[in-house]
Amino acid sequence: MSISALKSLAQAPTLELDKVLLSSNEMSQPWGMCFISADELLFTEKSGKLFRYVVSTDTKTQISGTPAVSTAGQGGLLDVAIHPNFTTNKYVYLSYSISGPGGSTLAIGRGVLNNNQLTGFTEIFRALPFKSGTNHYGSRIAFDKDNHLIFSSSERQEQDNAQLLENHLGKIIRLNDDGSVPSDNPFVGVNGAKPEIYSYGHRNVQGLVIHPETNKIYAHEHGPMGGDELNLVEAANNYGWPKITFGKNYNGTTITTDTAKEGMEQPIRYWVPSIAPCGLAIVNLQNQQANEVNFVLGALAGMQIQWVKIKDDKHVATYSFMKNYARFRDVEVSPDGKIYALTENPNSLILLKTNQVVTGLFERSSGNSGTVSLYPNPVTDIFTIDANDIKGKDEIAICNQQGKVLRSLNVSDNLFDEGKMKIDISDLPSGMYLIILRSKESSTTLKCRKL
C-alpha cells in the first residue's frame, strides 16, 4: 500500500474546492450531470438545455434534439444519464416535466447521441396522474447491473399520494431500458397497483445511486421541515411518508407523532434540521473496509456538501464541508475518481479535492452473455473480476490499448470464489489496459487504468 493510501485510512475525509470549471456567466440553473468518459460529461439546465462539457479543453457545446419541457416552479429539464452500454448504443436518458390535461407531470425519455444532437428522442414513461401544482417532481435516474432503469417520481407536494399504489407519485420506479415493465417488479399483477412501482412512501427524492458491485439502491429525500432521509431502497418496501416522519409541516404544526410503524422502513440516517439533500454519488476508496460505502451528497438549504460513511448499511459518520458556498444541486464521481459538483447561487461546475485515495468507478459490461464487473478502477496492483453471471468463458487476456496480448490466463470454474477472481498486475507499468474475457462464442471487454 502506498504511503498516501495509508495516511488516508487514518484520516477523516476532507472536501474542498480545487477549481471552478464553469462559472455563473457560463451556465444557468444547472440540475443534473453524468460522465461519458473521464474527460467528458453531459449536464442539464432547468430551462431545457443539454450540454456536453470537455474537461481537458474547457469547451461547452449545446446538444440539440431535447424535448419540450414545462419550466414552471420546480419543473424543467432535470436529470441526465447514459445507458450502461452507451459505447455501443449511444442512448441518453432524460427526466423532465411536461404539461398536459390537469396540470403537469414527470416524464422520462431517451434518444441517441450523434455528435452534438439527440436523435429519435422518445418519451418512454410519464407519471400519472397529472397534477396542478408545480413542485416535487423528483427525479434522479440510475441503472442497475441488469440494465434496469431506476428513477424517482416524487409526490407532487400532496402527501397522501405516496401511500397510494394506484398512482406513480411518491415512488421509486423500475423499468426495462426501453420503458417496458419488468416481469419481476413487486406489484405486477397486484389489483389496482401500478406495475412500474418498485417502492413507495417517498416524499421528494433528489438523490439516487446504485452500488455497482452489490446492486443495492440508495436514495435520499427531502423531508418537510426536518426529516430528510437516506434510505436503502428495496422491492415492495414502504418508506412511510407521511404516516411516519421526523419532520413537521412548514408552519410548525405536527404531521404525525409517529416516527416508526410496523411494515414501514427506517432510514439509514435522517437530518433535523433539514439540509435539503440533492445529488448522491458513491466514492470508492482504495482499501476501504468490507461492507463500507462512502457517499458524497449536496445540500440546497444547507448550502454545503456532505460526506456520509456507512457500514453494513448503518450510519457511521457524517462530515460537512464548504458551508455557505452555494446550493449544491448535483455531485458525481468521474471514471478516473475525481469528484465534481453542480451548484446554484452561484451557478457553477466545480472540481473538488479530497485527502482520500479515490479509485474511480467500477468498470462494468453487460450483454447477452451476462454481466461482468471490474474493481477497483483505477487499480494500484490487484483488481477483482466479478463474473458471477458469465458462463462459458475460458480465457482472460490482458492487452494494451492496441490490442496486443500481454498476458493470458486460462479460466476454469475453480478459479472463481463465489463468482469473483483477483488478478495481480503490479508488475505492469502505469497506463490503460483492456481486460478481455473470451470464449469460442463471445467475448467481453473491460477497460482498466493502472496507477
Automatic annotation (TrEMBL):
Highest rank taxon of the organism: Bacteria
Q: Pinpoint the Secretion system C-terminal sorting domain residues.
A: 374-446
Annotated Glucose/Sorbosone dehydrogenase domain ranges read: 28-349
Q: Which Gene3D superfamilies match?
A: TolB, C-terminal domain
Task: Specify one Pfam family.
Answer: Por_Secre_tail
What protein am I looking at? Glucose sorbosone dehydrogenase
